[in-house]
Amino acid sequence: RNMSSAGPEGRKKMRECEGLIDSLVYYIQGAIADHEPNDKATENCVCILHNLSYQLEIELPESYAQSIYMQRRNISNNDKTPGCFGTRSRKVKEKQQDTPLPEEKSNPKGVESLWHSTLIRIYLSLIAKSTRNYTQEASLGALQNLTAGTGPMPFAVARTVVQKANGLPGIRAMLHVSHPAVKRTAVSLLRNLSRNTSLQNDIAREVLPDLVSILPECVPGYEAACETTASVCYTLFNLTQSSSHNARLLLSAHGLPKVMAISMNDSNMFSKASRAASVLLYSLWSHTDLHGAYKK
After folding, report:
1. Claim to verify: residue 228 and residue 147 sit in the same structural domain
2. Where in this protein does the record put region Disordered (predicted)?
3. Residue 5 CB neighbours (<10 A)
4. Is 187 inside any structural domain?
5. Residue 138 structural domain
6. Which residues have a Cβ under 8 Å from the Cβ of 294 and sit 6 or more positions away?
7. What is the pLDDT of residues 244-271, one digit of tens each?
């Protein structure tokens, strides 16, 4: 567990170690099957996998980059960038959201397991069943890592979490736990998921009222809570930016007074949350059909 956080070279060596990732996954599967999701070894295994999934998309060997991201449609004949790690236009990135990964292997090995739906479902199961904060945080964090990029893999993982594995109820429950790190990681995961335009309505319907409910009445007085507040605001921004319906949902959840109060903080120390709330307010005002409701 300590070695897996030793930086890019350490992660690379551990990902390449034959049988290591497979053994970690095998152990966790056994723990879940035996209804023992709270033992210390399971926590350690999940934390290792969490660390090995960090920056996975940009650290994959070029051979994986080319084989995993084979596009099923011609994005552009003029685009000569190998893999998906080069500079691409916004239009290309938007198309990548709709480009599925190649069909999953039924028996993934090694590094392939890190983004496979089997492990995604394991993380979601641990989020729902474990009561260990570190296990919950590591499971959420692994999913946060896997959904952090802009290529087909993060968007495919996001679709699996939201639509195929019905993961939103478990993530939503983590918004209301008392442990601040678990809550912060759950919000960060939702922020990543909410970047996928095809999932925004599903996410808004399931968790938007909960996101509003955990917003404080004003800027919180310490930095960690301030970061969580900013992340909630940016998630709400993603969900409402292109949807008047979702903006109305925020309004009906009594979110507007909270966002206004957070935006009016003058302290530089906690400006991150105030800035995020201001960006959200500016976006909400762009829905001209809601101006009357806002004023009321």
Report:
1. no
2. 79-109
3. 14
4. no
5. 1-64+108-179
6. 251, 256, 284, 285
7. 999 999 999 999 999 999 998 766 666 8
